[in-house]
UniProtKB/TrEMBL annotation:
The keyword Membrane applies. Gene3D superfamilies: Glycoside hydrolase/deacetylase. InterPro entries: Glyco_hydro/deAcase_b/a-brl, NODB_dom, PdaB-like, Polysacc_deacetylase_ArnD. GO terms for cellular component: membrane. This is Polysaccharide deacetylase family sporulation protein PdaB. The gene is pdaB. It comes from the Bacteria.
Length: 254
């Protein structure tokens, strides 16, 4: 919450000083600009990141994996064939545990790895203890398999609430969503996946795709998507690259 006060004249000086002292004492920040004093909270609730604000034509391709072993390989083949050196994979830890060879390939290709949680469930329905347990289980497994602790998380089904965001933030994670959803999980047809991504993409975009077995058309649409975005002048970077170089777009959670 922000408070705006316009203070003018000597009669309000005393009141202003009292108010300022009170706001500082209660943890609210004070900034002065000529005759207008603006008060901001010192702390904000953590938010999910959907995209970044940037003038650079950069986007992050992201892939969620929660089950199966037939689609990840072909997708990695496409990325390799296209010479795409940067992408971000969000791995479900049970999948990662049962497919260490594919995890190793992703690591060897030097792609960024984030957590997709442990159980593929809506964490907003969990108690706080259960939320912590699910995040920590995934953290432990992914750290062991990849040799690096993840610091990005995309929750199963994109589901979270304020508690989930707060707990993940306390555990050292940034919650990542997306601005462009390819809807590849619906298998709507290769052309529709291509059109949806290439028509909605924008600088600083986080693009959601999947590498689970249920998504049968992603590896066919991906080469064209990469070619068309490159033709539009886009550079592919990781989610962390986007965050490091730009202002993130965060949507409030009700």
């Amino acid at each position: 919450m922000s408070f705006f006060w316009v203070l003018s004249g000597k009669r309000l000086k005393k009141i202003a000083l009292i108010v300022i002292a009170f706001l500082f004492a209660t943890g609210i920040y004070y900034a002065e600009n000529n005759d207008i004093q603006v008060f901001y909270p010192l702390s904000k609730d953590p938010s999910a990141i959907y995209s970044v604000k940037t003038d650079k034509k950069q986007v992050a391709l992201t892939f969620d994996i929660s089950w199966g072993e037939e689609r990840t390989g072909p997708i990695l083949d496409v990325l390799q064939q296209k010479g795409l050196k940067k992408a971000t994979f969000f791995l479900s830890s049970p999948w990662a545990e049962t497919h260490p060879d594919l995890v190793k390939r992703i690591v060897d290709m030097k792609y960024e790895i984030g957590s997709h949680g442990h159980r593929h469930d809506n964490y907003s329905s969990y108690t706080e203890e259960q939320i912590r347990t699910q995040i920590q289980k995934a953290d432990t497994i992914l750290t062991k398999l990849t040799g690096k602790k993840p610091n990005l998380i995309r929750f199963p089904n994109g589901d979270f609430d304020k508690r989930v965001l707060r707990i993940s933030d306390q555990m050292g994670y940034k919650t990542i969503q997306w601005d462009t959803d390819s809807l590849d999980w619906k298998n709507p047809g290769v052309d529709k996946i291509i059109k949806r991504v290439t028509s909605k993409v924008h600088p600083g975009d986080i693009i959601l795709m999947h590498a689970s077995d249920s998504c049968r058309q992603t590896h066919e649409a991906l080469p064209v998507i990469i070619d068309q975005l490159r033709a539009q002048g886009y550079e592919f970077v990781t989610v962390s690259d986007l965050i490091a170089g730009s202002n993130v777009k965060m949507d409030p959670v009700e």
